[in-house]
Amino acid sequence: MNKLVIALCAFAMLTAASCDGSGSKATADKKFPRKNILWFDATANFKRFSYKDSVIYYLKKSKDAGVTDVVIDVKPITGEVLYPSKIAPVMQDWDGFKKTENFDLLTVCIEEGHKLGLVVHASTNVFVAGHNFFDRGVVYSDSTKRSWASLNNTPDGLKPITSIKKKYSSMLNPVRRDVQEYELSILKELIGMYPKLDGIILDRVRYDGIEADFSNESREAYEKYAGHKVANFPDDIYKYEKEGDKPVRKEGVEFKKWVEFRAKVISDFIWEARKELKAINPKISYGDYTGSWYPTYYEVGVNWASKEINAKDYFDQATPEYNKFGYAEALDLYTSGCYYYEVDKSESKHIDKNNKERTEAGQHKGTADFYTVEGSNELAVKLMNGKAPMYGGLYVDQYNGHPEQFVRAMKMCQKKSDGVMIFDIVHIINNNWWNELKEGFKN
C-alpha cells in the first residue's frame, strides 16, 4: 500500500509539472527548441536593407542581442517581392527611395546569417496583393488580377476592398483556385530558389475579415460545399439592421455553416502548401503567423488550433465540423501575435475597453484574460496542444515610451511559450532598444 501511495504521488507531481495554471501543456520539458525570433519587415526597412553592409551590420547587432532566428519578409502586402522572381513583380522602390545596389537580400541574409549561427526564415504575405493607401500592388497594376480582390459585405452594400480606403491591405479571395495556384507558385519558386533557407513563415493566410468574401465565386463554392442553394444571398449569411443610428450585423440561417466553410478553405490551403513545399525541400521548417485572439479569429476564416481542440468551448459560432479544419498538426513552427500592452492577467481588470484601440483583423475589445500577454500566450499554447512549438509574438510599437513594459512582455512570452517573436526590428532601431531586447531575451 505504501508503494502504491508513493507511486500515485509521484505521478501526480509529474502531471502537475507538465501543465501550467490554465491546464495547457507547459514547455518546460524542452520538447521544442527555445527561440528568440526577430522579424525584418519588407517595407518598413526597405531603404535600410537596400545596402549590403547595412544588412550585415544589423544581422550582427541581432546576434549580439541574443536573437537565434531572423525572419526576412520578402513579400509585403503589395504582392511585390524582394528577390528576383520570374512570377511576381520585384519591388525596386518604396516611399520615394529607389534601390541602387545590385545584390540579393535573401542570399546575403542566409549566407551571413549562417556565418553568425542564425536560423534564417523567409516570410510571405499570402492572400493579399495591394496597398490601398497608395493604390499600389498587383491588384492595381495587373488588370487580369483585379477581380481577385475581396468583395466585402458592408453596411453600404457589396464593395470591392480596393474601394474601402480605411483598410490598408487589399486582401484577396482565398476561395478562388486561380488565386491559390498563383500564391502556391510563388511559394514554390521561393523554396526552390533558396535551398539553404531554413524556414518559411506564412502570413495573412486568411480572409480580410467577417465581411469577406461575397463574390459569385464564393457563393457557388459555398453552395457546393453545403449541398444546397442559398435562398437569400447574402442576407442568409448575415445582414445589417439599424439599431438607433448604428448598423448592426445580424447572423442568418447559413452563418455557422459559412464560418465552417471558410475555415475549410484556409485549412485546405495550409495543408496543400505544406505538401508542395516539403516536396521541394523536405527539411524546410513550415511555419505560420496569426493573431492570438482565437475566440474571434473565426471572423478571418482561420482555425489555427489542433484538430483535437473543441472550438465550441471558445465561441458559439463553431459547428461540430469546424474542429476538423484546425491545422496545428500541419505546422513545424507557429507564432501568435499576443498584441496587448497589459502583460499579467491581473492587469486585465484595468483595461478600459471603451477606450482601447484594437484594429487587427478579427480583434475585438474586451477584458478577458486572453487580452493580456500572459493570457494570450497560455491560450495559444493550449490550443496548439503540443502539435507545434508556439512562440509568443509582440508588436514593439505598442510599448512606445514604456521600455520596462516591453521587457516584462518579452519575459512573459519566454515564461509561457517556447520563446518570443519580436515584430519588428524597425522599432528596436528607432527606439534604440537593443539593451532592452537583450534583457528581454534572458531566461
Automatic annotation (TrEMBL):
| Top-level division of the source organism's lineage | Bacteria
Q: Which UniProt keywords apply?
A: Signal
Q: Which residues form the Glycosyl hydrolase-like domain?
A: 57-287
Q: Where is the signal peptide?
A: 1-21
The record ties this protein, via PROSITE patterns, to: PROKAR_LIPOPROTEIN
Q: Name one Pfam family in it.
A: DUF4985
Gene3D superfamilies documented for this protein? Glycosidases
> What residue stretches are annotated with the DUF4985 domain?
313-439
Is Signal one of the keywords UniProt gives this record?
Answer: yes
| PANTHER family in the record | GLYCOSYL HYDROLASE DIGH
Q: What protein name applies here? A: Glycosyl hydrolase-like 10 domain-containing protein
Source organism (scientific name): Solitalea canadensis (strain ATCC 29591 / DSM 3403 / JCM 21819 / LMG 8368 / NBRC 15130 / NCIMB 12057 / USAM 9D) (Flexibacter canadensis)
